[in-house]
Each structure stands twice: as C-alpha cells, then as structure tokens.
TrEMBL record:
This is YhhN-like protein. The keyword Cytoplasm does not apply. Belongs to the TMEM86 family. GO terms for cellular component: membrane.
Length: 213
C-alpha cells in the first residue's frame, strides 16, 4: 500500500514535468532541442532511482537503472551520430535483457517470440533495406537486440508474475517508437511521426522505470 501511495505521489509530480518537457522540445529553436529531450529521459532515470532508494537498494547496482542511463546517453549521441546513438541504445537493451533474465530463467517461448519478431521487423523494413547501404549490418544487429529485449520481457508476466506487465508494455512501446524512427530516417520529415515516436519513447522509459516500484 505504501509503495502504491509513493508511486502515486511521484506520478503527480513527475508526469506533468515529463509532459512539459515533451511539449517544449517541439516549440523551442532546434539548437536547444537536446536539453528538453534528455530532460525527459532523465525524469525516467530518476523514477527508477527513487524506487530503488525507497526500497533500500543502491541504484548503481541495478541493471534497469543503468539501462535507462544508456538510453538517456543515446538521446544525446543519436543527434550527433546515428551509429553512436544506436550503440548506446543497444547497450541499454542488453542490460534490460540481462535484468529480465535475472527475474526468471529463459523460457522457450522467448525464442519463438524473438524469431517471429525479427522476421516481422525485416518485413516491415523491406522497402528501406535496399537504401541502407553500410547501415544494413548495424540495423540487423540493433533489430536483433531490440526484438530480443521484447522476447525476454514478453514472457515475464506469465512466468514471473503480472507485476512485470508494465516492463513488457514499456519494451513494446520502445520497439514501436524505434520502428517509427527507422521509417522516419529513410522517409520525408514528418512532425507527427516525431511527436508520436517521442511520446511512445517517454512512455516506454517511464513504464520500464515504474516496473521497479
């Protein structure tokens, strides 16, 4: 009951701030865009850290906390270099996979989900793949890690308890956000897609962080 109340109080504080930095990044000059963008992911990092501190744990020893740190770093690096950002996000996903495996042993269903998701990812991007050139190998590697993250997370609510549902939902939201980003990279600039992918991205990070409460 106390945990639920603490999360409710934190949501009342954090969600309006997260909504504000989300909105600000679309109205300020482009040269200042990184500040609110990274601020949004920082709020999600704080959400995870607070949950761990209130539980008497050290955030620095938690894989989810570090996974979110790498995602926050990816927010910065991806604006400078796509590959650097992808490496940072990929590292974050690997840490989240390792955390998921700590919660429950690897289930055979995860392998089925992973293969199906990877095939689906290739089919979704079949028009963009010929345009990728040297980015094809990094795309396949990142897609394998991203879908592997969801494959590990998707079975947790069934094998380790319903409390892992926010984590699984967060990883799914992350995947959809990245798919929109991938489509956007090889298409025309689209403000609506940018707003949607950032909404899903912040939703993903917040759900992942909230799963620690």
């Amino acid at each position: 009951m106390e945990v639920t109340m603490n999360l409710l109080i934190w949501n009342i504080i954090a969600l309006p701030v997260l909504g504000a930095v989300y909105a600000v990044q679309f109205i300020i000059p482009r040269k200042f865009y990184l500040i609110p963008k990274c601020a949004g992911s920082y709020i999600c990092v704080c959400t995870a850290a607070l949950a761990l501190v209130l539980e008497g744990k050290n955030p620095l020893t938690n894989l989810v906390f570090w996974g979110l740190i790498f995602c926050m770093a990816g927010d910065f690096f991806i604006e400078l270099n796509l590959i650097a950002g992808g490496i940072s996000f990929g590292a974050g996903h690997i840490l989240l996979i390792l955390w998921a495996l700590e919660q429950a042993p690897l289930h055979p269903a995860s392998l089925v989900v992973w293969i199906a998701e990877l095939i689906l990812m290739v089919l979704i991007f079949k028009k963009e793949i010929p345009l990728m050139g040297k980015l094809f190998i990094p795309f396949i590697i990142y897609a394998a890690v991203l879908t592997g993250d969801f494959a590990a997370a998707a079975v947790l609510p069934f094998t380790a308890g319903i409390r892992f549902l926010p984590f699984a939902a967060g990883i799914l939201s992350f995947q959809i956000s990245d798919m929109i980003l991938g489509k956007k990279q090889f298409g025309k600039p689209d403000t609506f897609k940018q707003k949607l992918l950032m909404f899903l991205y912040y939703l993903a990070l917040y759900l992942i962080a909230a799963s620690l409460w």
